[in-house]
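Below sits our specimen:

——
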Amino acid sequence: MTAELSPAVAAAYDHCDELTRRAASNFAWAFRLLPADRRRALMAVYAFCRSADDLADEPGQAADVPKLLARWRVELDAAYAGRPDHPIGIALADAVRRFAIPREHFEEVVAGVEMDTTRDRYETWDDLRLYCYRVAGAVGLICIEIFGYQNASAREYAVELGLAFQLTNILRDVAEDAARGRIYLPREDLRRFGVAEEDLLEGRFTEAFREVMAFESARAGEHYGRARFLLAEEDRASLAPAEAMRLIYEQLLRRITFRRWDVFGPRVVLTRPEKAGLAVAAWVRPHLSFLYRLAG
């Protein structure tokens, strides 16, 4: 940690760094493209979002989740008031002060976790879209404040990417979620293609299931396409970390499609070298473009 940080804040960031390393998320690959101050802030955001999100997945503590979420809301209050107690809150307080991150985005994230603790089915895409916006789109809006941007289209870009990322996660994790009794694929889409909930809960790989997965994959692809369109030229360099995540998640979606949407077998993953290569490509592209413009 740099000398500009107090010992307490430096220790808090170290705590967030440890959480991030243990999680080994695709999200973490964006960290590697950032200067130290922005990387630290992103780690604090990740630690907050991950710690809140994990509450929804802990078995046997459903009754405690409202109390635990209430505590995180109190810590969020404290972070924005400059008097946090928890290490994650201490790091977050420093991050939101440095990068002027709007508080409402964090409140949306907590509301998304709350949805996860009270619902295990979604009737329509509009219902699921709200969930995806809260747990991923709002995170994107937080992240771009740390990455930096010039064009207001970056905010729409962040939301579209968040929707695409979360939908990709949902498609990859159908079997894992079903094992916990959760079905995120909209019921109206399941009915449209003739897929029974029991098919998902019992891991039946049917032609109808393949069709609904292809439909949802196309929907995710549309959101990736909108994000690519919304990325302004002047923001390509600063948003290279977001582009790294886009390349990684789009490749995940391609892997799911290459398997012809059979997600009941081994989990679809990318190797570390594959992720590293995509992250480097995301950083190199805008910088090469800049050099070409100078040379031209």
Q: What stands out?
A: The chain has 13 helices and no strands. The chain has two domains: 1-118, 120-282.
